[in-house]
Design goal:
Distance between the termini of chain A: 45 Å
Oligomer: heterodimer
Number of domains of chain A: 6
Strand order of the largest sheet of chain A: 2-3-4-1-5
Strand content of chain A: under 5%
Shape of chain B: globular
Strand content of chain B: 15-25%
Distance between the termini of chain B: 36 Å
Order of helices and strands of chain B: EEHEHEHEHE
Structural class of chain B: alpha/beta
Strand order of the largest sheet of chain B: 4-3-5-6
Largest sheet of chain A: 5 strands, parallel
Number of helices of chain B: 4
Largest sheet of chain B: 4 strands, parallel
CATH topology of chain B: Rossmann fold
Radius of gyration of chain A: 33 Å
Chain lengths: 866, 126
């Protein structure tokens, strides 16, 4: 199996400051706790802390640590969809996606990190509860302003960064004075440059800083810690240094005052630090203080931290130039990250010209209001900033205009990408692939734009956007989404939408329904689409004909299929459209194959491959190659079949089409087995099985089991063949699918002759009861039934206990109380309690009674041990 | 078997035997440690006088922590100040006013009385 990275955590953009004890505690929590939610106001650093915790846990989770970012989604159903996308799980026909995800995670030891749950908190709670209930080794770390409120959740409230000590509120007034007397300022060396000095434990740091007079306020847990070692000060200094500002020791007093004013809120500190190139910490502190006096006269209802943060964001926003302000608020229309090109197209409107945007964006990055990757190709806004910017956009009265524009731009871009990828003649594959990739990158924004189309009742543009991208289509393993969008839009007021537009959208509805195996509904939608679409809409008409061929063949109506294949091909030939010429020819080949006309099927298939090559799209080429493989197989020419299937593999890998690839690999494996190339067969089937498992496709797993059954039989392992076939049949039955009964009957016939009736029946029922994984392993590893590996016994744990602990455990069996034990051993009851807590922790027990039982069971041979 | 009564709840009349106290304290200690309480950590306890208070106190001490008691009848502002001063990471309380007062504090984890018993622990597979 290929080793892929076991996490998808982003690189840290800058130094992580402080929170060592918190990180430690949080790491420890995951031993026992299934779900931990980091709660707190926006800007307090939940995401950053979660990512840091998650990064530290990567070694502990063999099946990976997976970050699922939810901020950019507005619809609850996208929660499980995004989890699936991150895990590489694809939707199965007629099974809720969450079930597929759950099945995939069932035996996995992995950690899911759900970031920014608050706006979808109900759905997140349902999904997490369902996953945790079904997957015993799964752990979840969530960040949210609000808890999920589910039974297995531990709510962990993220505090601000530690502040320079202020002493108790009622302590001496002098201590609360914001300025350090100059003599008190620590020497500059005590502010370590990032990464040069490991962070010291407070006690040690205090020792090192012992040249400081010790009358610093000393109430908190870390008395005497140098001001510059306090988390919030460190963060400010670090970010100021990153902004190019060198702050000397003389500014420490102001920095301390500023950190207090900002309540140690990381985001507020970062925004302030980003301004130190122009304003001194003292000036910033003064201005922020003024702002608070304004703020507190306003709404007093919001919690202090939230008000502090708002003040900091507002202050930073107000310092922007007018054009920077305009750009920042407009950037809030994007779903998630965006590139310069998109920003220019959507945001360039009076008073900003397109050419200015690159500089304005750079200025916003410098001020920490916009984040970007190292190469400055992708930009994004922190959720807290985005929310603020949305409000400003609203206040400026620009929301509707901008979202409308966003919708329009998305339509244009996706249409252009679609045309380049599919329709445009004589375009090199590299350009088509580029368009395809660009279109996929825009999918999240496309969803946001579709949301706006629905919200604003702009059905025309919405439908247009539905038909402009392959990103929402089943090709990407997204079975239900396109159906949902089209149905949602078609349920709105359709005034002013032309019949052609509706018919065109129904084409995509039909496409989605076929993938969901809703054949008669798909056929109906396709018929309506063809009837309503303008004659000059040649490309989509051809696509509909091709779809009808597939649906009708699946329904066993090959005469009608033939008619549509011919009609589609004629249209495409007349218009010079190579995509649909290839698709039409593939239809003709498939019809011929169904009817047993192999030479005709071969000829059409070859021509289809030639047309597909002319077009250059790897997906189409792979389909043609697969068709030729099937035809060769039908002829009994296995060598050619294998070669044809192999041809498709690199094309499908290039596209990342997991599902098609899994199918292709399984076919190669089966054919290779029949050619007695057992090593190759085993590798291909194992790869296909891994893909089937990773994508959660039971159908794919069943297909592999059939291939493994063939492999086993050709290797002379008739028992394994029966087992694998039975497991495949059982799995297919659980999906509600029919198995190819002829092959099974033939196999069972041979098995009865060789192994006898009773043995065959026993093997069949054993295989049916076997898990697909066990059955697959049986054939893949060439296991024989006779060698049953014994179950490994759980290791005994008593050696963990110290002599004293064993002694106390023994006394517990006599039913003694802590006091009783204490008297017996002449120690204090508190010590006894501590020993008992240790024993429980070591043995993983949760009650004294359990220890007593354990001790009784292990008391029989106490002298056997030392 | 030791059947010594160590406390009678004035409200309910329920008796807490020494055995029960030991058992509940031990379980609670484990729960505290699982949530990261270490030797020297301050733990806030705001509970009415009764068996739960006794169990919590014992457990905090057994976990090596320092008990920082908060009388339940303190007013909101005083509660907030005390919580702030304590610098505690963990608080044990079911008292609504105390929970509210902890809102903007540095308390990371709030444990209810139910959280102190093993029945509330989660099914896990390690």
């Amino acid at each position: 199996m290929p080793t892929s990275p076991r996490h998808n955590l982003p690189a840290e953009p800058n130094r992580f400051v402080g929170r060592e004890r918190d990180l430690d505690d949080l790491h420890g929590l995951f031993g026992e706790t299934r779900v931990v939610t980091l709660c707190g106001v926006g800007g307090i650093g939940k995401t950053r802390l979660a990512l840091r915790v998650a990064a530290g846990l990567v070694p502990a989770y063999p099946d990976g640590v997976w970050l699922v970012e939810l901020a950019r989604f507005g619809r609850p159903e996208l929660v499980e969809q995004e989890i699936a996308r991150v895990l590489g799980v694809r939707e199965e026909a007629s099974r809720p996606l969450l079930d597929t995800v759950t099945a995939r995670l069932r035996d996995q030891r992995c950690l899911l990190v759900l970031d920014n749950c608050e706006h979808l908190v109900d759905r997140c709670a349902e999904v997490v509860a369902a996953l945790v209930a079904a997957c015993p080794s799964l752990r979840v770390l969530a960040t949210s302003r609000e808890p999920l409120r589910i039974a297995s959740e531990l709510i962990w409230r993220v505090p601000p960064l530690d502040l320079p000590d202020t002493g108790p509120p009622h302590a001496a007034e002098a201590e609360a004075a914001p300025y350090q007397p100059p003599g008190l300022a620590p020497d500059p060396a005590s502010y370590p440059p990032p990464g040069l000095r490991p962070d010291l434990p407070p006690d040690l740091a205090a020792d090192l800083g012992s040249d400081l007079p010790s009358y610093a306020p000393s109430r908190t847990a870390s008395p005497g810690v140098a001001m510059s070692d306090v988390e919030s000060v460190q963060l400010f200094m670090d970010r100021a240094a990153a902004a190019g500002t060198r702050l000397g020791p003389e500014s420490l007093g102001d920095v301390v005052r500023l950190c207090r004013a900002l309540d140690g809120l990381p985001l507020a500190l970062e925004l302030a630090a980003a301004r130190t190139s122009l304003l001194s910490p003292g000036q910033i502190a003064d201005r922020i203080d003024d702002r608070f006096s304004l703020l507190t006269t306003g709404g007093r209802t919001a919690p202090v931290r939230q008000r502090t943060l708002l003040a900091a964001v507002e202050w930073s926003y107000d310092l922007l130039s007018a054009k920077e302000q305009v750009l920042l608020r407009r950037l809030s229309v994007f779903a998630g990250d965006f590139d310069l090109d998109l920003a220019e197209q959507v945001c360039a409107e009076r008073p900003i010209a397109g050419g200015e945007i690159v500089d304005l964006l750079g200025a916003l990055v410098d001020k920490s209001l916009v984040l970007c990757d190292e190469s400055r190709r992708r930009y994004w806004l922190l959720e807290t900033i985005k929310r603020y910017a949305v409000e400003r956009l609203d206040q400026a009265g620009e929301r509707e205009v901008l979202r409308e524009r966003h919708l329009n731009v998305l339509c244009e871009l996706q249409e252009r990408h679609f045309t380049t990828e599919m329709v445009e003649p004589a375009t090199p594959w590299a350009r088509r692939l580029e368009a395809l990739t660009a279109s996929r990158d825009l999918v999240d924004d496309q969803r946001v734009a579709l949301d706006w189309a629905v919200e604003s009742g702009n059905v025309g543009l919405g439908l247009r956007l539905c038909r402009t991208s392959t990103g929402l289509l089943p090709i990407r393993g997204n079975l239900t989404e396109i159906v949902g969008w089209v149905e949602r839009l078609l349920s709105l007021d359709m005034t002013g939408v032309s019949a052609d537009e509706i018919a065109h959208a129904k084409a995509y509805l039909a496409y989605g329904l076929e993938a969901r195996d809703e054949l008669s509904r798909s056929l109906e939608a396709a018929e309506q689409s063809l009837a309503g679409m303008d004659r000059d809409n040649v490309f989509p008409r051809c696509v509909m004909h091709s779809l009808m061929v597939i649906v009708l063949l699946r329904m066993g109506r090959s005469d009608e299929a033939l008619h549509h294949a011919e009609e589609g091909l004629a249209l495409a030939t007349a218009s010079g459209d190579t995509w649909n010429q290839a698709a039409g020819l593939l239809g003709l080949s498939a019809v011929a194959l169904t009817r047993g006309r192999l030479r005709e099927a071969q000829r059409h298939g070859e021509e289809a491959l030639a047309r597909a090559r002319e077009h250059g799209h790897r997906w189409l080429m792979a389909r043609a190659a697969a068709q030729l493989g099937a035809v060769a197989e039908a002829r009994g020419d296995l060598v050619t079949a294998q070669a044809q299937y192999e041809m498709a593999v690199p094309w499908l890998r290039e596209l990342g089409s997991d599902l098609d690839l899994a199918r292709c690999l399984a076919r190669i494996g089966r054919v290779a087995a029949m050619l007695h190339e057992f090593g190759a067969a085993r590798r291909r089937l194992a790869d296909s099985l891994a893909l089937g498992r990773a994508t959660g496709q039971r159908q794919g797993v069943a297909r592999c089991l059939v291939g493994l059954s063939v492999l086993a039989e050709y290797e002379g392992d008739l028992e394994g063949a029966v087992l694998a076939a039975a497991a495949a049949a059982g799995l297919r039955e659980s999906i509600g699918q029919h198995s190819a009964t002829i092959r099974i009957e033939e196999l069972l016939g041979r098995a009865r002759t060789k192994l006898g009736e009773g043995r065959t029946t026993a093997l069949w029922s054993r295989g049916r009861a076997m898990s697909p994984d066990d059955a697959a392993r049986h054939v893949l590893q060439g296991e024989r039934l006779s060698h049953k590996t014994p179950v490994t016994a759980e290791p005994v744990r008593h050696s963990l206990l110290t002599a004293r602990e064993r002694e106390i455990a023994g006394l517990l069996t006599r039913g003694l109380s802590n006091r009783g034990i204490a008297e017996e051993l002449v120690i204090s009851p508190a010590t006894v309690a501590r020993h008992i807590a240790n024993i429980m922790e070591k043995l993983g027990y949760t009650s004294r009674a359990q220890i007593a039982v354990w001790a009784a069971e292990h008391a029989e041979h106490p002298k056997a041990r030392t | 078997m030791d059947e010594r009564i160590v406390m009678v709840d004035s409200g309910t009349g329920l008796r807490l035997t020494e055995e029960q106290l030991d058992e509940r304290s031990a379980v609670a200690t484990v729960q505290l440690r699982r949530r990261g309480v270490r030797a020297g950590d301050t733990v806030l306890i705001c509970l009415p006088v009764g068996p739960d208070l006794l169990v919590s106190t014992n457990a905090v001490i057994a976990a090596g922590g320092v008990v920082w008691p908060l009388p339940v009848d303190l007013d909101a502002a005083t509660l907030r100040d005390r919580i702030q001063e304590s610098d505690a990471r963990v608080m044990i309380s079911n008292v609504r006013r105390a929970l509210e007062a902890a809102e903007e504090s540095r308390v990371r984890i709030i444990m209810s009385v139910a959280d102190l018993s093993a029945a509330h622990s989660y099914p896990t597979s390690r």
